[in-house]
Amino acid sequence: MRNPRIYQNTPLATGQTITLDDDAFGHAVRVLRLKNDDLITVFNGQSAHEYSAKLTNVSKKSAQMMILDVAEKNVESPLNIHLGQGISRGDRMDFTLQKSVELGVNTITPLFTERCGVKLNKERLAKKVEQWQKIVISACEQSGRCIVPVVNEPVLLTQWLEQQTSALKLNLHPKASHSIMSLPIENQRVRLLVGPEGGLSDDEITLANDADFQDVLLGPRVLRTETAALTAITALQCRYGDLA
User: Fold this and answer.
1) Potential cystine with 237: which of 125, 183, 189, 241 (Cβ 3.0-4.6 Å)?
2) If you count DSSP H runs as helices and E runs as strands, how many of each does the chain have, helices first?
3) pTM (2 decimals)?
4) 102 and 194 assigned to the same domain
């Protein structure tokens, strides 16, 4: 079996014996069915390091790991991307978050927009954010990332637009006159706005433009919201990041 990568949200250091937290235990023992002396790779999302460890004291309800070694592993892109994603229905949002993390996005803020068809009360919203963060962690385990991107609390689009930043601000627009591949970049930070199904309304696009977001084009075809986000992130990584 390939040495699996496991996220453990605790401080890690060589020589320690640490009890796996509930999520790490569920992944390693219940899902992967690992046993005593099986080797795993562990990271905690706090630094560009991963740790080799050996499972011990595995039972039906708990397990421990002995940290054997540590190695630096930095696969982060030099380009920092903050994705403002209009909340989409069903599995589309989950898919967008998972794949955007694989492509190197650093921060994700789910956005309530005029055409957002998702209605959640406070309790269900908290559970949804927790679910999204777990999807992000799983994507890091799979893709080899050690730094875990943050899923911010969902906010209204107007609130997100008001946040102060020095990043290059881009809004995907099917009728824009400039290609995303032709824009100059003044620093290594990008704030990318992607609407939900049906896109942003004309009023929302105007608000984004007033907040210094530049409309950019991805190509001649109309893309679904999840396709648009991932295509834009890939284009940005190709031009300014680590896919060049």
Assistant:
1) 241
2) 6, 12
3) 0.92
4) yes
